[in-house]
Amino acid sequence: MKLWKLACLSFLSLLLINCGSSSSSDNSKKTSETIVIDQSPDENLAIPDNTVVSSYQVLLIGNSHVASNDLPALIERFIKLGKPNAKVSVERLSNYNYLDNRINDGVTLEEIERKNWSHVVLQGQKYSQSKSVLYSTREAEKWIYLIKQRGITPILFPEHPQRGSTWEAQYVHDIHLSIKNNQQSCVAPVGLGWNEVLSQLPDLTLHAPDGNHAAYAGSVFTALVFYQVITGELADALPYSDKIKLDNSTQARLGEIASQILDEYQACDY
User: Which of 57, 170, 174, 226 lies in the 20 to 30 Å Cα band around 264?
Assistant: First the structure.
């Protein structure tokens, strides 16, 4: 009888130790994420100014709009063209999630902490095309806060309007301005710039056949906007590049419009 009781007690002790160990490990992981991700972004830190650095390490976080026509490669090409002595690397994390879905995905924060980024571009704020729903911007504000804590320049990316819906540019831009008002960040006037290109160069194809994503020329223009926001250098001062599949005149006009729109709508309040 004593042996049986001893065996039972040993078994129960082992079971409790194993259960406790597993529970402790899970809670520890969850607590770690909570401390980092869910801390309140009530402190509105200033935007770190990394326009003049020896190493431009840029990360684009978003959905398919940051992947169209290999946008990171275009941005990298322009930075290398305008800053030939700088080290340049532009990468993307585009697993097609919106910013609110990334808060506890276990991937996005890890990517932000993987490297000493100089700039992080955030795209994927939800918005209602019918204007009937107001989606939370709190998650985007949390990402901006966490990025600034690490000395990185945050840049919001209001995507371009869909074909035939030029009104979306101002609507989406205003949503991102409301985020900036709550948590200081750069806001790249991409959509407003697209409207200007459509007005000045009506024969240039900016949209892909689906009417939603960017055609090559559209991505080139978006990259020019980001070049100026990231480096602080004028896009219209960039020389012609034979690696960009647009003629000299078109490249020059897109650079002029990018600088024009950024003169009208300042991206960063340093």
Answer: 57
